[in-house]
Amino acid sequence: MKVCLHLEFKKFLRGYLYKNTGTGFLSSFKNYFKALSLIGIEVTENLKEKYDILHVNIPFLKSLWAVRRAKKRGIKIVMSAHATAEDFTGVWRLSNFLMPLARRYYRFAYNQADVVITPSIYTKSLLEKYPLKKRIEVVSCGVDFKKFSAAGEGKNYQKSEKEIVIFNVANVIPRKGTGSFINLAKSFSENKFFWYGKIFKSFLYKKLPKDLPKNLEFKGFVPDILAAYRDGDIFIFPSYEENQGMVILEAAAAGLPILVRDLPAYCGWLVHNENCLIAQNEEEFKKYLNQLISDGGLRARLGMAARKLAESEDLKNIGERLQKVYQNLI
């Protein structure tokens, strides 16, 4: 079996559109490529080669052209649904008005596949309502457990409150919860708050407030994201909409205590007070963050449980799940 993994725009203008941008499209592509390689499946990016399965990471126009050509050759098509119309909320100015159009486009595009893969049960439920006519399988984007667990070695959960660093990893857009993060920094002025992720300067994106609290710093894109997981103590992900949230698995692999907003995408794998804390509203974010800051034992317990969760989503396991999906097609 040979699989062609295709990510549109990956090589366009030498990868300019993905440069200095921590996007899930690219991260999931890299994870799947490595996952398949780990279990011995031959994988290529070259659409001109011979292969048995075409696996499209995100169905933009060139991808749909490649799908059409592959179908003529009798090649089976798999598409990863890393994007839905619901993702448009809080991204660009006026993006909410594009949601109906995006839903129609994704419905058409995903229906060109033989099988659609979603990273969570939640995303599967969304697409079923579009509706999609094709079979939908759930396969996590996974995490390179060995890579990110190394960033968590030597964590000191008994640090004093003033030494604790609270951080997030995400592109700086309202959907990711920038407002909540800023408010938390204001409420916990003795602690440092760092946000790692690209800051967009286009008029299409809402700018950050000018009066940011002194204990908060938006770091922008950083090439070595492992340093963030290595130096941070509490991972907060206040996003309002996700299909999975790959950075959560990365933080989990690093053995970090995690605090997230209650989202349907987390149902079935994140469990409140077992492997993370889940806030229903802004007041609960403050309440749970205060508990994490003041209780080293709680941080250690949640971090260890999160690490076990991430280990189950290691790339080798993901590769085996993908292999089953492919084998059912050929």
What topology does this entry show?
Blueprint: E1 2-6, H1 24-38, E2 42-44, E3 53-56, H2 61-72, E4 76-80, H3 99-110, E5 115-118, H4 121-128, E6 135-138, H5 145-149, E7 165-169, H6 178-187, E8 192-196, E9 216-220, H7 226-231, E10 234-237, H8 246-253, E11 258-261, E12 277-279, H9 282-294, H10 296-312, H11 315-327
Parallel strand pairs: 1-2, 1-3, 3-4, 4-5, 5-6, 7-8, 7-10, 8-9, 10-11, 11-12
Structure explained in plain terms:
The protein is an alpha/beta fold and 330 residues long. It folds into two domains: 2-142 and 314-327, Rossmann fold (3-Layer(aba) Sandwich); 145-312, Glycogen Phosphorylase B (Rossmann fold, 3-Layer(aba) Sandwich). It is built from eleven helices and twelve strands. The protein has helices at residues 24-38, 61-72, 99-110, 121-128, 145-149, 178-187, 226-231, 246-253, 282-294, 296-312, 315-327; strands at 2-6, 42-44, 53-56, 76-80, 115-118, 135-138, 165-169, 192-196, 216-220, 234-237, 258-261, 277-279. It has a six-stranded parallel β-sheet with strand order 2-1-3-4-5-6. Strands 9-8-7-10-11-12 form a six-stranded parallel β-sheet, sandwiched between helices. α1 (24-38) packs across α11 and α8 packs across α10. The longest helix has 17 residues, at 296-312. It is globular. The N and C termini lie close together (9 Å). The model has no long low-confidence stretch (mean pLDDT 91).
